[in-house]
Amino acid sequence: MNWKVVLAVLTGNVIFMASSYTMLIPFLPMYLTHELGVSVEHVNLWAGAVFSATFVVSAIMAPIWGRLADTRGKRLMAIRASLLLSVSYFLGGIVTSPMELVGMRVFQGFAAGLWPMDLAIMTMYAPPDKLGICLGVMQSAMTAGGVIGPLLGGVLAEAFGMRASFFVASAALMLNCIVFIFVIKEPPNPSKKTNEENSSAFGSFSLLKIPVLRLLLSASALVQMTILILQPIVTTYISSLAGDLPNLIFVSGLIFSLGGFAGVIAAPLWGWFGQHKGYLRAALTTIPLAGLGLCIQGSVSDLYAYAALQFTCGLFFCGVHPSINALLAKNTDPSVKGSIFGLMFAAQQIGSILGPILGGTVATFLGMRYVFYVAACVLFSLTFFLRTRKKLIEGTE
Question: Which of 12, 49, 301, 390 is the most exposed, fewest CB within 10 Å of its CB?
């Protein structure tokens, strides 16, 4: 297949996937109280269980699915993930108790793995000199879906009730499944013998013994942790800056989305930058600038300044993951692309678990502003460490 056709199809696939996820996640606490009868005093406990269930299970399963992608086919694993995710969303729309919703999220974690398969397929179709822009476009699509999802979910909830969002998400993932079955072909791969030999020699967890891959996976987890570290406090923090501003919920949602809007714009540009100037250089530029933005964001007391910095941070954060993903792709054999992106997804899921826990702990004991400073310090430390390992990452050590 032509790589441009693959990029166009996978971009639409990623938008459907990301918007399906984000049209539901912001409304899960309301779903628990309004549809499943959870009391207000217990909703936070149930919401925590619902949120974390998927991350924990998918972190365990992602390397397994990645290994199977290398031995059984990446397209097959993408079909599997799309189909099972579609089923999970449908089940979410018919659950009648909070325990059933937790069970649905556990099953969703078992089903997850579509994003790493999209990345693995794209890196195998993309010409080497187009890898950066391809990953940048796909990151932009992921971010766009993250902006579209909550808006669409809100409209559906108002017009048809919250359960409708689950059924629409299910239909979107089923469409993704159909596209993989009838449109996308298995990417070019080494011979079966070579593939089996490499898969045996470099199983998912054996790849962790390779220093450069271990370093890049750790970086991916830390970046994801800092992205989600603000999740427990961001709405409360915006409310503290806004005061008695009318339409506070709408304003909070709009400000929260500004980083996503910035990411849609800037992600392809950072992909182009990495492609022409070097992916490590792109990472070493975006990571500290994102940290600086967070540091300033925690210092301002004006809502409009905070909103401007939210947009600014989005301009830099969107360039980090594509740069790391491109470096992972360049440092791995085609026969283990599924395994490495499965490990990448697992690392990000671990970061997604640790981020909110760390953010909530820091906010509780030190105050909300310190969450921004801690996140910035993590990014500055990561920048320093990557600089010290520059020769290893570039293959000159």
Answer: 301
**Domains present along the chain, CATH in parentheses:** 3-394 (1.20.1250.20)
Helices and strands: H and E segment counts in the chain: 18, 0
Residue 13 identity? N
Structure tokens at 74: 């990446």
Side chain identity, residue 285: T
Buried b (16+ CB within 10 A) or exposed e, 269-282: ebbbbbbeebbbeb
3-state secondary structure of 367: coil
Cα of first residue to Cα of last residue in the chain, in angstroms, is: 37
Q: Could you give the CA distance from residue 48 to residue 41 in angstroms, rounded to a whole number?
A: 13
Q: What is the pLDDT of residues 347-386, one digit of tens each?
A: 999 998 888 888 888 888 898 899 999 999 999 999 999 9
The tens digit of pLDDT for each residue in 150-181 reads 888 878 887 888 899 899 999 999 999 999 99
Cα separation of 67 and 218, whole Å? 19
